[in-house]
Amino acid sequence: MKKFGVGVLTGVASTVAAAATAAVTFHKVAVKPVIDEEEKFEETERKSARKAAQSHGSRF
Fold this sequence. Notes:
mainly alpha; 92% helix
């Protein structure tokens, strides 16, 4: 019975570790590039709004 309990605990621990690894990997591969792209777009939008305000008046 002792080996069964150790096996269950090992299985639960490895499942939790695999889920955490999958979540971190998904965040790095799918979520972070989208966030970085949005930040870059916002920065470009701010710069273009500033330039447009200089030459044509307020854009926003």
